[in-house]
């Protein structure tokens, strides 16, 4: 595993710091995002074979589905174990990631993922959120309470 097997926040809470919310990866969001990736990979594989003049264009769909299906199966345990803790001061993530709320300058979404961008340019992904809009709302509210201004 890229983060050394640590899928939950390892940073200790500071004195008087409290966890406001825990963000867990959602299995339905994981499956939905992987289904979209498979569809795109299938179409892409077929397009490449068609452009090359291959008479067996359909094999691109099989290859795309197999690639994303295998990847999804292999990565599921790691991705679904990921957890982020939102405290009144920081966002604590897997692999020792620690982001002070006041340093967050941008929050964006793509599919079921929320991207957190810091003033230093660091980027963190809260992937496979069951309700990414609610995740975004909670993060924006916490950043505002901490005195930051995230776009």
Q: What does this entry look like structurally?
A:
Helices cover 42% and strands 23% of the residues. The model has no long low-confidence stretch (mean pLDDT 92). A four-stranded antiparallel sheet has the order 1-2-3-4, with helices on one face. Strands 5-6-7 form a three-stranded antiparallel sheet, with helices on one face. The protein has two domains: 27-79, no CATH class; 83-145, Pleckstrin-homology domain (PH domain)/Phosphotyrosine-binding domain (PTB) (PH-domain like, Roll), CATH 2.30.29.30. The protein has helices at 27-51, 58-81, 132-145, and strands at 19-24, 83-87, 90-92, 98-100, 104-110, 113-118, 123-126. The longest helix has 25 residues, at 27-51. β6 (113-118) and β7 form a beta hairpin. The radius of gyration is 19 Å and the shape is elongated. The protein contains three helices and seven strands. By secondary structure, it is α+β, with helices and mostly antiparallel strands. The two termini are 32 Å apart.
Largest sheet: 4 strands, antiparallel
Give me the number of helical elements. 3
Task: Name the CATH superfamily classification of the largest domain.
Answer: Pleckstrin-homology domain (PH domain)/Phosphotyrosine-binding domain (PTB)
Distance between the termini: 32 Å
Mean pLDDT: 92
Count of β-strands: 7
Radius of gyration: 19 Å
**Largest sheet, order of strands side by side?**
1-2-3-4
* Unreliable sequence segments: none
Proportion of strand residues: 15-25%
Q: Give the SSE order as H and E letters.
A: EHHEEEEEEH
Decide which structural class fits the backbone. Answer: alpha+beta
Number of structurally distinct domains: 2
Shape: elongated
Tell me which CATH architecture of the largest domain applies here.
Roll
What is the CATH T-level topology of the largest domain?
Answer: PH-domain like
Highest CATH level, the class of the largest domain: Mainly Beta
| Estimated helix fraction | 40-55%
Keywords: Membrane, Transmembrane, Transmembrane helix
Transmembrane segments: 34-51, 57-74
């Amino acid at each position: 595993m890229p983060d050394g097997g640590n899928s939950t926040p390892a940073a200790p809470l500071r004195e008087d710091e409290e966890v406001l919310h825990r963000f867990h990866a959602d299995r339905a969001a994981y499956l939905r995002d992987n289904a979209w990736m498979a569809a795109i990979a299938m179409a892409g594989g077929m397009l490449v074979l068609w452009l090359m003049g291959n008479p067996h264009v359909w094999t691109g769909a099989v290859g795309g589905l197999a690639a994303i299906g295998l990847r999804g199966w292999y990565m599921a345990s790691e991705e679904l174990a990921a957890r982020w803790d939102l405290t009144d001061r920081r966002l604590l993530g897997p692999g020792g990631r620690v982001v002070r709320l006041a340093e967050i300058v941008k929050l964006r979404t793509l599919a079921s993922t929320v991207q957190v961008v810091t003033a230093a340019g660091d980027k963190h992904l809260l992937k496979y959120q069951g309700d990414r809009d609610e995740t975004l709302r909670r993060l924006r509210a916490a950043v505002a309470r901490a005195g930051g201004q995230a776009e």
